[in-house]
Design the sequence.
């Protein structure tokens, strides 16, 4: 009976994490570039209730008598499916159609990656630079900042579907800057370390960032100006998952109550 108490308690703890994950998904349903997460579970150790043989001849039983000790969270996976594209009136809003990630330079000098293409022009030490909403410079395919040339206004900047950066002169002539917005892919994007501000950091599990401009064998992504990628959270699915998690939590609490009543009955046998 004590085994059932601990098994049910582990189930309640696991389902609490499940509810936390679902709540996080629902909270970010309108976050640009957010990718839905799902908690995965695994069983704990099994205990043998009987030997594998119950005969004097030592014959093996066809099936063992084992009981598990509950469950725990194995991992929380991130699913990088494509989110819906929404039109935007800002010329510095970009959506990625494909598996790529934008790269930004953090305050600590490290490179981070994101699917959130809500950028803006910000005045920095090098000049007017393309940055994300936190002021982190967006990097091009060579790892450099994208800076507006002297005498050019932000309204004249043009970024094509392949991410090429240029601008238009007063007479309408297009001038290429020989820069391209950097797009990077990962062998295992689910292994990226999730940070705040919709940023991801490289880990050993994710593999090194592969530059779409130089790496061979990659299906290149498209950069769509005046679009943003919505989150891929499916609200209906998350609500169903939330109900299932809540019911599982309730069932585990009922198991604890049943075990408690059984212990109470056992303790009252001598009365």
Sequence:
């Amino acid at each position: 009976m004590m085994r059932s108490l601990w098994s049910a308690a582990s189930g309640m703890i696991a389902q609490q994490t499940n509810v936390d994950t679902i709540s996080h998904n629902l909270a970010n349903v309108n976050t640009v570039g957010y990718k839905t997460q799902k908690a995965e579970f695994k069983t704990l150790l099994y205990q043998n209730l009987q030997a594998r043989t119950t005969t004097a001849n030592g014959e093996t039983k066809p099936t063992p008598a084992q009981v598990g000790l509950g469950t725990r969270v194995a991992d929380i996976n991130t699913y990088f499916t494509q989110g819906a594209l929404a039109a935007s009136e800002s010329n510095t809003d970009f959506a990625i159609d494909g598996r790529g990630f934008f790269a930004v330079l953090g305050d600590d000098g490290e490179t981070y990656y994101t699917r959130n293409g809500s950028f803006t022009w910000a005045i920095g030490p090098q000049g007017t630079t393309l940055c994300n909403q936190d002021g982190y410079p967006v990097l091009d395919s060579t790892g450099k900042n994208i800076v507006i040339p002297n005498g050019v206004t932000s309204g004249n900047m043009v970024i094509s579907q392949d991410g090429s950066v240029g601008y238009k002169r007063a007479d309408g002539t297009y001038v290429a800057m020989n820069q391209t917005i950097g797009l990077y892919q990962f062998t295992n994007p689910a292994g990226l370390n999730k940070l705040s501000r919709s940023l991801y950091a490289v880990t050993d599990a994710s593999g090194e960032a592969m530059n779409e401009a130089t790496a061979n064998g990659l299906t290149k992504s498209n950069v769509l100006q005046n679009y943003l990628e919505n989150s891929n959270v499916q609200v209906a699915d998350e609500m169903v998952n939330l109900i299932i998690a809540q019911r599982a939590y309730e069932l585990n609490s009922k198991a604890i109550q049943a075990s408690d009543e059984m212990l109470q009955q056992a303790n009252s046998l001598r009365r």
